Protein: GDSL esterase/lipase
Organism: Eruca vesicaria subsp. sativa
Amino acid sequence: MTMIKAIFLVPFFILFFFGSRRVASAGDQKALAASFVFGDSLVDAGNNNYLQTLSRANSPPNGIDFKPSRGNPTGRFTNGRTIADIVGEKLGQPNYAVPYLAPNANGETLLNGVNYASGGGGILNATGSVFVNRLGMDIQVDYFSITRKQFDKLLGEDKARDYIKKSLFSIVIGSNDFLNNYLVPFVAAQARLTQPPEAFVEDMINHLRDQLKRLYALDARKFVVGNVAPIGCIPYQKSTNQLKDKQCVDLANKLALQYNARLKDLLMVELKDSLKDAHFVYANVYDLVMDLIVNYKQYGFTTSSEACCGTGGRLAGILPCGPTSSLCTDRSKHVFWDPYHPSEAANLLIADKLLNGDSKYVTPFNLLHLRDL
């Protein structure tokens, strides 16, 4: 998921700050060698800072709770860490996966992993065109193929192959294919008449299948793939459709569920049978986020419908987070940071379930188990 952002330059010192942290050695005896992240703004770590795009998060107060940058924005679409950041930390990564487009994405820095995610990106190449520039999943895989060659030069072909096979490949994508493609008002209305939901979802699955197989051919073996969250329940959808707090947009959620069912079949049946030495974990993000939305009080939140940072309407859900947006007093009490993305507090809870949870939320096993295979 993503939003239209004003364009600001990220403080340049941040690049060198991240580059100065300890780099993992190829000789470290860890089950998880590196973390490679693909997806959209839910896990973008700053790639869009280096694109001429309308989808950016490198202006305050984004990143206000991101300690490594001392609260300066880095291009993450949240107030602190993304789910991918937290998962990488908990699995033993000494540094966050560096954004592929960052100037310091080279040399031994790559050994911790690389983040290819891009706000506005989708499984389909047409997704997110409203933002002008973004990295779709096809381009992200193209970029990984370049990284893969760099690993051969860094470690030698045999060691590089083993290193990549021990690494975690996280894919969090699909929301924009609905929000910024199939469900775009007026623009996609004609397309919906000629392509029913079933056909659109099948198109997504066919493209994702090819993308995952391309990663496999480049020696990826440990995959965690997130399904699409209840996008009909985000503050933006509630605000633009003038819904009450406990209401959600039915069509958006139905599309997400339809895609999620096909995704589970793709991972747990088709690819599991055809790619015997690969491990695929299906992350049930839909139910994880829905649980937070419905039972927010049990998790210590005061609202699951109002954005902490945003502009417009009673839910601050119309315009994205920026310097002129309203800002809540306690960010830890909001499930949503902005009209589209979870807060760091919500990301921490989601990441914990992915790392330690049972088959209700992560199938066939959790990420700690996946790391140790």
Remarks:
- Strands lie at 35-39, 98-99, 113-115, 168-172, 222-226, 279-283, 309-310, 326-327, 362-363.
- DSSP finds twelve helices and nine strands in the chain.
- The CA atoms of residues 212 and 373 lie 19 Å apart.
